[in-house]
# Entry
Amino acid sequence: MQKVNIIITRASISQEDLPNWNHDGQIKFNYITLPLLSFQRIDSNEVKCAIERIRQNYYDIIILLSANAVNIFFEILREQRDFKTLFKNLTNMKFVVIGPKTMTALSKYGITSELANNNNSNYSSSKIIHFLMKLEEENKHKKKDKLTKILLPRSAESLKSDNYIKLNFDTIFLDQVLFYKIKDKTKLGNFEQLAKIVNRSKDYEKNFIIFTSPSAVRTFFQDIISELPQVIGMRDKEILYHLNASVILSIGPKTSIELEKRGIEYNESSNHTVKGVFELIRKFI
# Structure
């Protein structure tokens, strides 16, 4: 029986993300989830200004990039004394999301939305840019007199990952507001998970590590160096060799860029979702 170890930089794996391996019991899979990151809201004048604009029915469209963004967005709104009024105003606005999981998270708050791009299952930030450029083209064709005003809640780390949209538009006002920041989880929890990787990986014939975001790449190497003394002084790719990592997998282009900076060879999923990365593993088994 072949033994396969799969490590993913997520707090959990949804059953719907796992493919039907069809291995007739000939492969034993061991999944290790590595919850490296926590998401913390930002209370700033910019956020207060965005809320006030919602209060005034200022925005036409709200774009949300992740389930975490959805939850933090509503956590902040719910604390407002006039939440019912704010929520009513939200129903007058169009919601656009990056992928189906974000859509599902938003539906739990009673808000319907549409995907930025329905044409394929490649859910990356580039699809938001494609949506904005298409909207710009449509606005120009219709010769709209008023700007289309869009709120895009962001993470502070979007600046580090070069995800911040720097394009200029003639018919769109894009209000990118930093609503949350991504922080390391407690060191103890990380150490316990990282220790499991070292202890278990040698027992498996193939060991996959899935990186699900640029922040996860940075945090992974910061934490493992600070918590596991045996890897101190090693380069990043030497650390992965120490962990007996057979294949490094990237969820999408931004994550791949972060891996490239570290000289790490990787395989990128063409479908930029967790499910897509698991499908990619098939070719290596």
In short: The chain has two domains: 2-36+185-284, 39-183. The chain has a mean pLDDT of 87. The CA atoms of residues 112 and 274 lie 23 Å apart. DSSP finds ten helices and eleven strands in the chain.
